[in-house]
Recover the amino acids of this structure.
């Protein structure tokens, strides 16, 4: 059954398109913030998460990402996810599938 487009996350959504703050090359983590997942609790995110990022968002390690965030300021509630495990919340679904769309700048 096809549902109409809405920017609000509904329990019936089978996927979410979100952006990210940074892609951490060292360990393959994806850094997210309140800006990316809005006010949604991680347990409300669907089983498929499609992350859209630019090549310029790739940083070497967590220290580089945190340094850039500190310079930019006003970013709240940082969290990270990876393909092998989620650090978003202990109650997150173990079957979550992550897809990355990497765009050239």
């Amino acid at each position: 059954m096809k549902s109409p487009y809405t920017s609000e996350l509904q329990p019936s959504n089978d996927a979410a398109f979100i952006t990210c703050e940074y892609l951490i090359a060292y360990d393959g983590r994806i850094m997210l913030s309140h800006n990316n997942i809005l006010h949604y609790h991680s347990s409300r995110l669907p089983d498929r998460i499609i992350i859209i990022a630019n090549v310029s968002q790739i940083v070497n390690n967590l220290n580089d990402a945190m340094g850039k965030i500190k310079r930019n300021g006003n970013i709240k509630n940082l969290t990270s996810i990876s393909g092998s495990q989620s650090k978003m919340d202990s109650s997150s679904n173990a079957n979550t599938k992550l897809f990355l769309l990497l765009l050239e700048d």
About this structure: The chain has a mean pLDDT of 80. Residues 63 and 101 are 24 Å apart (CA to CA). The beta strands are 15-19, 22-24, 29-32, 48-54, 58-59, 79-81, 97-103.
